[in-house]
Amino acid sequence: MKKKCSMSLLCFLLVFSLLSMSIPVSADTPSTSISLDKSTIVLTVGQTDTITATVLPSGTTNQNLTWISSNPNVVKVFNGLLMALNEGTAYINVMNPSGNSSYASCYVIVKKPDSTMEINKSSAVLSVGSTETLTVTVSPSQAVHWTSSNPEIVQVFNGVLMAQKLGTAVITATAADGSRSVTCTVTINDAPTSITLNKSTATLGIGKSTTLTANISPALPTNAYLMWQSSNPGIVSVSGGVITGVSLGTAVITAIASDGSSSATCKVTVTASGVNPIRLGGANRYETSVQIAKQGWPNGSAYLVLATGNNYPDALSAAPLAQKYNAPILLTDKTLPQVTLNEITRLKPTQIFICGGTGAISKTIENQLNGMGILTERLEGKDRYETSVAIAKKLGSGSGELVLVNGYEWSDALSVSPIAAKKGIPILLTDKNAFPDSVKSFVNSNNFYTTYVLGGTDLISNQVKNQLPGSERIDGTNKYERNINILKKFEDSLDLEKICIATGADFPDALSGSALAANLSSAIVLVDNNSLKSVTTQYVTQSLQQTNDVYVFGLQGVVSDTVVNKLFGK
């Protein structure tokens, strides 16, 4: 009896299984597999791409798929659309949430954008004696080195072409890291005879002389010659290009072709001191910084550097950054002075670099600037050393040279600032006996080959100096002697027809003026308003005889006319 029952149950199960095989499958049955049209994708930051998923069997209708990125900070995904955000890797997974365990994956690699470099012209035609400016766009941003295949035909300086004589030369712009270069072929054609003078303005003392040099290109016809004339020989006399101050006043010197085909002029002013003093000062350090900005940037500036006027450390490295962005340096108090606010409004910058943390320049000021529609970028660190590194990183380090100064002695940094700015050299701060880790790390991660160590062992020890590549010390017994020794070191790269004067008693005027001095390709001479140092007067006498324009930072109480006259009086 028990055996019959077992047989009946087995037959029932067999029949049930056969019947089940004939029942149709619902269209909503979960899919059995998912596949992607791509298994690996390589993207660049900022790019997008699309992955297409295929669900099998093809007759299924439940394709409400879920897309997941294993690293959304690198790649985001939305219904198969990929967006590359940052360098790195991620897996893009797609699965069916209806209960089926099928899924598929795609491996995504995101790279940094490749360096790009573009020049505004691939060819140019100039006339002898003319100039033109080439511009280059580099991404990521970095310094550019310019060279000419034939400087006798075309010279180039920071993209400015100077046509010398007939012929062709190839101008090459190379990224500082050597990754890219672009060229422009420049052809120089003939041009009508033109006369140019080495100076368009000059300043003399009574009884003092200098020589004007005429450049004639192409040469005058054989039947013509060069003549020199003075609009007022009683003020300035001229003979064969040699001009002499006769009495106080102004006269125009003209170099003219005897056939009247071309001419050039130079305006000459005779003063008691023999120079043209340009005083840039205000009632306080903030007004002085504004006057300097107005002189150097009369038409405004797209960028601006803002530093505190109350202490110097955070801004000692600012001049090279200002020069890179052709920006003035303005000073602020704990709140933004009205005179500074007015100047910012006049300059109309689109971006302001803030030097230092909120302890130096408050968040309130930053918010105020943002409220004016100005972008701000704060360059800061936990101390003065890290802040100098932050500024140096923003500047870039393409020059291979480095300046190191004591972080508690402002005069050396500001003595070298215009020079470092013009040469694109970062300025870093150090303690006397301890090389800060943040500075050391930055130096070791860059390819510096020369370091100018400013000051004696009383400011920077040999223990620190010896840790720097190609270190060279520039010393002096005091700030004034170091100032002059720094100028002497770099004298060949300076335009000493112009010079800037600032007090050596305090930092603000020299800080604001360093950006202007760099724009002038000049330097700053520090003076003691109460007692001129002999090292300063000797340098002016020996090296600044051809100086015409003297930019004086501050009012009489800071740098007096008496000091200027003693320095330059003939």
Automatic annotation (TrEMBL):
Where is the secretion signal located? 1-27
Sorted UniProt keywords: Signal
Known InterPro entries for this protein?
Bact_Sporulation_Assoc, Big_2, Cell_wall-bd_2, Invasin/intimin_cell_adhesion
Q: Quick check: keyword DNA-binding in the entry?
A: no
Write down the Pfam families for this protein, in alphabetical order.
Big_2, CW_binding_2
Q: Does the keyword Signal apply?
A: yes
The lineage's top-level taxon is Bacteria
Give start and end of each BIG2 domain.
30-108, 113-185, 191-267
Q: What name appears for this protein in its UniProt entry?
A: Cell wall-binding protein
Task: Give the species.
Answer: Desulfitobacterium dehalogenans (strain ATCC 51507 / DSM 9161 / JW/IU-DC1)
